[in-house]
Batch of 2 targets.
Target 1
Amino acid sequence: MDIPESRRARTVVPLRRTDAAEMAPTAETFAALQTAFDHLNTHLFGGDLPNALVTLTRRGRSPGCFRAGSFERADGVVADEITMTPARFRDRPPAEPLAQLAHDMVHLWQRAFGTPGRGGYHNREWAAKMVSIGLQPTATSEPGGKATGERMGQMLIPGGAFADAVAALLDMGFTIPWAAREKALPRAGEGADDDEPAVPKSGRWFKYVCPACGAIARAKHGASLVCGDDYVVMDMEP
Ligand SMILES: [Zn+2]
Ligand SMILES: [Zn+2]
């Protein structure tokens, strides 16, 4: 039987006894993400952004996700959430996940200081702020793509503030130390379009999942579904 690549057992590397003393994956990961957030906040947003809670997901196909006010501390303080995809920390320049983090920080900036689009729509204000911090929004993840839309990728503007900020961060030896081990994702896959599975698409039903509440729906390939509870675009799963 032909087992799809994604279902095959992955190579399991045995843990050495010494590993326990040498590694702190949770602390190392979130220290790096906080460092990146602080650095981008200082250099691109004047240090004005409130901290968000950065979460990681292995589900869904979108490279990142911003949710307004989705966490609350026991004393009632509310925080926004930025979800990152650790499979995308692997085998690609750190500037790519950092650009996605900056993308979601622009959503946070809009919530604090601007006018967010409905349902997470990337509106003109969002696009203008992206350009001002040195990232060119593009719906196709390629040059010349539309600068507004439901799902957006971005390209680094050479000589822009983001490029400078990331260069300075990398000069300090910054890395995101841990990446999810799983099947390779397309390298240029910041947009939805290049994530499509290599199977016939017509006539098949695909599973869509709300990244916020996990609600499931089924629809044809390429459908654009929005969760009625969360007003976010649902992710198509392979
Ligand atoms: Zn976005
Ligand atoms: Zn939902």
Target 2
Amino acid sequence: MFKDSIHLRKRFYEQFYKQYMLIKLDMKQMKNVRFHCIAVVSIIISILMIIPFALSYLTTVISIQSYGNILTIKTQITQKSEIRGVFIHEGIYGVPHNWTLIAETLSRYGINAVFVNDLNGNGWRPNSEIRAAINAFHAYGIEYHSVISTILEWRNSGTEAIEPDGSIHWEYAHCPIKAHDLVLQTIKNYLGNFSDVDGIMLDYIRYNTQDTCYCPYCRAAFDEWYYQNYGEHVSDWTLFYPGQPNWTIYAEWRTLPVTQLVKDIHDLVKSINPNLVISEAAWTLFSDSAIYWRKWLGQDTAKWIAEGYIDYVAPMMYTKTVYGRSGETLESYINSNIKYWMGGQSEGPIPLVALLRIDYGTTSLPPEEFKLQIDYVRQRGLDGWILWRYSGPGGYLSGSPDITNYLAVLDMPTTFAITHVNVDTAANSATITWLTTLPTISKLEYSTDPLFNASWRVQSGFHFWNITYTPGVMIIDYANVTEHSITITSLSPGTRYYFRIQSIGTAGTVTTKVMTFTTS
Ligand SMILES: [Zn+2]
């Protein structure tokens, strides 16, 4: 399809490979006295900084080896055995609300994360409101993730997506090229004010329909790409409009500016704080189709997972039906997401979290029936769930069911987290240690292969990235402990290895992302 597809693939794998360079060990630098001083000062500052935090909030660990090596595991995010989230819609700002009461209520029912719609097409919530909300949830130990309606920023900003006839598609739907700088600046300003949030959730990171964007910037960018890949410029634009013979070529191209935006958001957010979690509220795959939303909305989630741009994905698995292998059922959603985004594994390259809908107004499901959805999500080994959306003590949305009726019927065993992952390498062996906040068994998987790769495939005439899994060697220790240590022997000297660790307890499973070490 592409003249330079081999080059593209090579470049992709190079970038993919770089994402797994999470551990950097440079002994040469350690011989540099100046660097050594900086390292010592960094350690002292780090120790001072971590004292006020509870164990579960320790996310970056610097280990001092007896022989002077310093290993820094970058962007190691503390992972809980179950993300129990609640989405708080912007509508909460339009009704009488009390953040402390909302936080106290959710804490009482075992919720450990909220996703608050602070940034969307209607503007940015008042700073005093956001500050009060963050403080309230943090006071109850609940993570605060700020939801940004990414390509819906803002109304009347002049960045709206354009239809083929030149008209504005919808005042809320924007062009990823024209809105690019505005979105980045908005996130930068937001994090400048609220650097203590725990994450950014990207919502609406896609086109609204197949009809956009045909603004002059998109047309120019497409024409350049078309010339590079097909050796000719666009002579008749009508052939590239929806329903026309070459529209799928345009649909393929238009994933690129969205991906560029996701990459730039990732780079910006991680440069501000590498421990901030970037999640995506995604349109869910279903009915064994890998291409559907990539084709129709330009949502290229598999690519973003493969590139490491997002830390976990929360597909909107909205349905009232649990079973059924096709259509809008929980089973169909989970099957497809695991197959194409997780390499066929429930423990995939990043956590898979079900965004579930309880609010259907007066036709909402009875809580007991909804409990079956949570049971099914847990049975399938997903990493958590987020309920859409909060209405209850401290903030009642008109016509929405009280969320406490739903939370009250759920079983909530105590969650645990993995922290303090450390690697100690020698020429022929490596010892990996970690802590868990509850006793669990220990698993370690390693390989000279990155474990997860992405392959460029085609389905019904449209391309997609398919995440694949190549199993490594598994070492299992069945002792139930909180201090874990596994030593790998018979390794080759001077070789890069990929590994991930897993802890399994009564409250679930935590699997880390793939990390690397290199033997000496
Ligand atoms: Zn455009």
